[in-house]
Write a structure and sequence with these properties.
Elements: H1 5-15, H2 28-36, H3 55-65, H4 69-74, H5 89-97, H6 117-127, H7 144-151, H8 165-175, H9 188-194, H10 200-216, E1 228-238, E2 243-254, E3 257-268, E4 271-280, E5 283-288, E6 291-296, H11 302-306, H12 320-324, E7 325-333, E8 336-343, H13 345-360, E9 369-383, E10 389-404, E11 407-422, E12 440-441
Parallel strand pairs: 6-12
Antiparallel strand pairs: 1-2, 1-11, 2-3, 3-4, 4-5, 5-6, 7-8, 8-9, 9-10, 10-11
Helix pairs in contact: 1-13, 2-8, 3-5, 3-6, 3-8, 6-8
Length: about 450
């Protein structure tokens, strides 16, 4: 089963129950890419991405996306609308005569009305050459969202919450990677280059990124049912005046057999506490400051536990990766292709907030966290010649504010996670203490 990068990130976040405050995703990366291609202009306030666009702004962005602003201003286009301001008149006229918009009524465009996702996706689909004849129900407007998802110009995440100028910039950016309806070009950006609307040299790096992205999303990150794997996690948490914690965990899953080693060192208000824990043969062994006990691990549903990532389906977010990633590189190591992916901080935080909002509605306890932000998230994927994932790693930094009895405490953490497929003959093992048979069985 294929997983998107978004799925991998969400699984990691959900697994450790992180709760975040709201972070606006600015889609700055999308706006900057469009600006570098000459398809988006900034303002005195930057790109102004965190507010709702009006319909006039949406049409102007569409005309600029298509590289047609100069033609709109110098051309002899007209429209029947009586409510369009002078500054938007040429753009609306070109869009009307090109069939991108029909207005709200035969004589009104409602330029100051809020542009919804459905409206802008409809504009973009028409600009790509899609018309009502492509819609199953005969109305591209009515089916704009579902059809837009199929075409790849929008996704579930972009439709979540308010539709801002940033969302509009993201739709515009991923539309550059969509194929026009006539099939003459692989992407809209190829067509813009051919039409002379975008400089070929400026577009070359973006087109190269699109090609690498297409290769990246074909990675099969699913775990075969009969596969064995090892999981490593290192985490360091600085809780300010409260103290600090460092944890190392190594887990091996072979079939339905799970083994693990967890080493923790904690300093709480000046007091040092060490804990070593092991999972072996269905028991958890805990050594906390030389107090050694064991208890049933409760692993009756090991199969359900290790298949947990399979239950999280976010495949509809696959196109979100295009505007969510700051950078993708590809190299080779030990005969494997290695993709290194840097996620945009703004997208990461808003994506996790979205997931945590869903969990919050189910009554998940915030555990004292009032704020959290993630940054510097880098993923690496090692892939064999068949496109199967052999190893993956994720590293990230976190900044948190913990509320305890009305006191706010700034905290920070770093995390490294690695997932390794175990092939036959690989020497992967855990060295357990010799005295596990001396641990006392905990009552109850």
């Amino acid at each position: 089963m294929k997983k998107t990068l978004a799925t991998v990130v969400i699984v990691v976040i959900l697994a450790f129950s992180l709760v975040l405050t709201a972070y606006a995703s600015t889609f700055q990366q999308s706006a900057e890419q469009l600006n570098e291609l000459g398809l988006l202009q900034g303002t005195d306030a930057g790109f102004d991405l965190d507010r709702a666009p009006n319909r006039a702004e949406a049409v102007i962005m569409l005309v600029r996306l298509l590289g047609l602003e100069e033609e709109a201003v110098s051309g002899d286009y007209s429209h029947p609308f009586t409510d369009v301001p002078e500054w938007a008149d040429p753009h609306v006229a070109l869009a009307y005569e090109s069939g991108y918009t029909t207005g709200i009524t035969p004589t009104t465009f409602e330029p100051r009305g809020v542009c919804t996702a459905q409206m802008y996706v409809t504009f973009v689909l028409r600009a790509l050459g899609y018309s009502d004849e492509y819609a199953q129900g005969g109305s591209l407007w009515a089916e704009a969202i579902t059809f837009g998802i199929d075409v790849g110009v929008v996704d579930d995440y972009l439709l979540y919450g308010n539709f801002h100028r940033g969302n509009m910039a993201a739709v515009s950016y991923i539309a550059l990677n969509a194929a026009p309806a006539d099939g003459e070009f692989d992407t809209l950006l190829d067509k813009l280059v051919a039409d002379g609307a975008v400089d070929g040299a400026a577009a070359a790096a973006v087109l190269e990124y699109f090609d690498l992205f297409a290769e990246f999303v074909q990675i099969d990150t699913g775990r075969p049912d009969d596969a064995n794997f090892a999981f490593t996690m290192d985490m360091d948490i600085d809780m300010g005046i409260l103290g600090s914690t460092s944890m190392e965990m190594f887990m091996i899953v072979e079939g339905l057999d799970m083994q693990a080693e967890i080493l923790m060192d904690t300093v709480v208000l000046g007091e040092e506490v060490s804990m070593d824990a092991y999972i072996l043969d269905g028991f958890v062994y805990i050594n906390s400051n030389d107090i050694k006990v064991k208890t049933d691990a409760g692993l009756g549903d090991v199969e359900g536990m290790i298949s947990m990532p399979e239950a999280v389906e976010l495949d509809s977010l696959s196109s979100a990766q295009l505007y969510a990633i700051n950078k993708i590189t590809k190299s080779t190591q030990d005969g494997l292709a290695v993709f290194t992916v840097e996620l945009a901080d703004g997208f990461l935080n808003s994506l996790v907030t979205w997931a945590m909002d869903m969990m919050g509605r189910m009554g998940v306890d915030e555990a004292g966290l009032s704020e959290m932000s993630l940054s510097n998230l880098v993923c690496t994927f090692h892939v064999d010649a068949d496109g199967a994932l052999k190893k993956a790693a994720i590293s990230m930094d976190m900044a948190m504010v913990i509320e305890i009895e009305g006191v706010s405490i700034d905290s920070a953490a770093s995390m490294f996670i690695e997932y390794l497929m175990i092939d036959e003959g690989d020497d992967v093992s855990i060295e357990f203490p010799d005295d596990l048979d001396e641990y006392l069985l905990a009552e109850g």
